[in-house]
Each structure stands twice: as structure tokens, then as C-alpha cells.
From TrEMBL:
InterPro entries: AAA_16 (IPR041664), Cyt_c-like_dom (IPR009056), P-loop_NTPase (IPR027417), WH-like_DNA-bd_sf (IPR036388). Keywords: Heme, Iron, Metal-binding. SUPFAM superfamilies: P-loop containing nucleoside triphosphate hydrolases. Residues 168-334 form the Cytochrome c domain. Residues 1-23 are annotated as: Disordered. One of its GO terms (molecular function) is metal ion binding. This is Cytochrome c domain-containing protein.
């Protein structure tokens, strides 16, 4: 097949040519946007799932829906140990700028921008150097007495309430999208939950859409007990057989290429429907197939190359981030997870390594912080990356 015409896109967060298996989530978000626009109560949204299931792709698709309804939007990617103030201020600035041309009261917009500037400037101390201060490109002076206390919970509530007011003036809303939400520092998680709670109580048109690893609901619940009722949680999982086939067949059909049924069987067996793997195997299989239609032999010939690319770019890059002690912990998990779908009791890891559980806590906590494992439930851990245990059993020796 002509590699220039290859339709598959195995990139991080890159939208595939056919966004298969996510119709329900897209339709549900349309309902959320319409209800909020009509002043109806609606909860913010949280997407959870393993890496490689397409959370970021779906997050971007939901943002496109909001943009299509003329909403103001902004997106951030949370990072460990980084305050929300600066990235959230930038995202909210972008969202309001999208609404400004339609707002009839420039003074009202300027008043909000002054509040936004005051909020952002609190990200650095009064004695911070100029290079460490946020330069938002906002010409109006910073407001006083609003969103400038230095208490992130108080300030964020006031800021988002004011932003929602600007959107309501225009007859639309604001949607803030937060990727890697589990990495938000604990005080900022609490502030974000409090702000969403206040927005919900006042029926204001601002919605937060977060995406993160499977333990994100536990992170939110630990911050605010009412977060279980504050957000609508949507589990994003691997594609079923029909959706996985559609993700492969539909883009190929656009190029006039077909798949034999045996080839689709082999691809689903190899990928198990994980969207990133579907795109990765689809791309390599296309490049290696000599003629149309693509057959099972083409899949078998391409499989080693696809596995090699995943071993370097998807698995190996993550394994390299771990220290020797953390790698030892990962290899123990891999050895124990063969028959448990990746979920392993922490006590079993300690027994396997001949160590006291307390001595392994630093390695476990560091791996959780790096996003390589998560606590599936109390006393257990699991890989955040599908097939990571398989990779470790085959390749990781040191």
C-alpha cells in the first residue's frame, strides 16, 4: 500500500480518522451543553481510563462541540507540583477572548479581565523576579478585593463565578478542559471542586471537563466528600469488536482499500480494542501490505514491527523514567499480574521481593506520582498502561 495514503494516526492525543465507539459520550455532552445553555442544572464531567484509550482525543472532540456552539473554551494539562493559577488563568483568558467580540459591554469585560489579572499575579510572591511573574497581555490594571486573597479556594470560586457571568451576558457558556486531572495538587483540587459546587448551586453557565487515570475519582473524593455527586464520571475503555473494526475499515474504505475478515480477527486479537494499539497496528499493517485487500498474513508480517515500535515509543519511554528501585517494583508487578489482569495486591509484591511492605512505599508512591501505576482499590495496585506487564515480562531485565 502507498504509505503516503496511510490513514492511521497513532499519535499521542491525535484524533484518528474515525472516532469510533464514542458516539454515546459525544451525544451526552451535547445534552449537557444544551441544558446549561437553557439554565438547567447540570454536573461537570470527568473522563477516566487507562493510557491509550483515547481520553485526550475525546476531550478535544468535546471541546470542538463546545466551540461549535459558540462557547468560550480553554484547555490545560495539569502537572504534578504545579499550581493551577497560571495555566488556568491562561485558559480562561483564551475562553473570554472568544466571547469578547459578541459582548455589548466592554467595561464589563475589562472588569473581569482585571479580576483575572489579579488572580494570575498571585501565582508568584510579592518579591518574585520579573521573569517569574505571569505576563498575561492584559492592558487593564489588576482588580483589588476580588480573586486576590492568595487563598486558591476563595480566589478560584470568585474567578469562575465572574467568568460565568460574562458568558451568561452573551447567552452562551464557558467550558474548561483539564487533561491529566489526577496531577493537580491537593489544595487546587479542593479549590476546583468548591468552585464547581458554587457554579452548580447558582446555575451558572460554566462547566469543567476533566480527564485522568482510573484513580481520579478517589483523588476528587479525598478532596471533597461531595465530589461523588458533583461530577458525572464516564469510564472510557477499550473499543468493542464492532467499534474497533470500524476504526480500521472506515478510513481504509475512504482510500478504496478493504480488509479480509481474517485480518480484522487477527488485529483485534493483537490490539484487544485499545484505540492507540488499533492505530499503531493499522498503520504498520497498511505499510507492509503489498496488495488490496489486506489479509491475515499481512497482519502477521507486520506484527513484529508494530510490537517493536510500541516497545520503544509507548512502553520503553515510560520504563526509562523509573529508577532502579522502581523498575524492580514494576517487574515484580509484571511477574504477579500474569493471571490477574494487571491488578496485584501490594502485600504480594512485598512477598515476591522478600521485603517489608513499608520499605517499598517510596517506590510505589513515586510510580503513582509518575503515572505508571495506580491504586485500583485499597491494598492493590495496577498498571496505568495496558499490556505493560506483557512488555515487562518480555523485555525488561534491568
Amino acid at each position: 500500500m502507498d504509505p503516503v495514503r496511510n490513514p492511521y494516526a497513532p499519535g499521542a492525543g491525535q484524533r484518528p480518522p474515525e472516532l469510533a465507539g464514542r458516539d454515546r459520550e459525544l451525544q451526552q455532552f451535547d445534552v449537557v451543553l444544551e441544558r446549561i445553555a437553557r439554565g438547567r442544572p447540570e454536573r461537570s464531567l470527568v473522563l477516566t481510563g487507562l493510557r491509550g484509550v483515547g481520553k485526550t482525543v475525546l476531550l478535544n472532540a468535546l471541546r470542538s462541540q463546545a466551540i461549535g456552539r459558540m462557547w468560550g473554551t480553554g484547555k490545560i494539562e495539569a502537572r504534578p507540583d504545579q499550581s493551577l493559577r497560571r495555566p488556568l488563568a491562561s485558559a480562561l483568558h483564551m475562553a473570554v477572548r472568544e466571547l469578547t467580540p459578541r459582548h455589548r459591554d466592554p467595561d464589563r469585560v475589562d472588569a473581569f479581565l482585571g479580576v483575572l489579572k489579579a488572580f494570575a499575579l498571585r501565582s508568584a510572591g510579592d518579591d518574585a523576579k520579573l521573569r517569574d511573574r505571569w505576563q498575561p497581555g492584559i492592558d487593564v490594571p489588576a482588580a483589588t478585593g476580588r480573586a486576590d486573597t492568595g487563598d486558591i479556594e476563595v480566589d478560584l470560586v470568585e474567578l469562575l463565578v465572574d467568568a460565568a457571568g460574562v458568558a451568561r451576558d452573551v447567552g452562551v457558556g464557558i467550558a474548561l478542559f483539564v487533561d491529566e486531572m489526577q496531577d493537580i495538587p491537593a489544595p487546587d483540587v479542593s479549590a476546583l471542586c468548591a468552585a464547581c459546587h458554587e457554579l452548580s448551586q447558582q446555575g451558572l453557565p460554566l462547566v469543567v471537563v476533566g480527564a485522568g487515570l482510573p484513580h481520579l475519582p478517589a483523588v476528587l473524593s479525598a478532596s471533597k466528600s461531595y465530589s461523588e455527586r458533583l461530577f458525572r464520571y464516564v469510564r472510557i475503555d477499550r473499543l468493542d469488536r464492532e467499534a474497533a473494526d470500524r476504526a480500521l475499515v472506515a478510513p481504509a474504505s475512504e482510500e478504496g482499500v478493504a480488509y479480509e475478515q481474517a485480518a480484522l480477527d487477527a488485529l483485534y486479537e493483537a490490539t484487544e480494542g485499545y484505540p492507540y494499539f488499533v492505530q499503531a497496528y493499522g498503520k504498520v499493517t497498511w505499510d507492509n501490505a503489498p496488495t488490496d485487500p489486506i489479509g491475515a498474513d499481512d497482519v502477521r508480517m507486520a506484527a513484529p514491527e508494530a510490537q517493536a515500535e510500541l516497545a520503544v515509543g509507548f512502553f520503553g519511554s515510560r520504563y526509562e523514567r523509573a529508577t532502579p528501585a522502581e523498575r524492580e517494583y514494576l517487574r515484580a508487578m509484571a511477574a504477579l499480574s500474569d493471571d490477574t489482569h494487571g491488578v496485584v495486591p501490594t502485600s504480594d509484591v512485598a512477598t515476591y521481593l522478600g521485603r517489608k511492605p513499608s520499605s517499598l512505599s517510596p517506590a510505589r508512591d513515586a510510580l503513582i506520582k509518575k503515572g505508571l501505576i495506580y491504586s485500583a482499590e485499597r491494598g492493590t495496585i495496577a498498571f496505568t498502561v495496558p499490556h505493560f506487564g506483557i512488555y515487562l515480562r518480555r523485555h525488561a531485565t534491568v
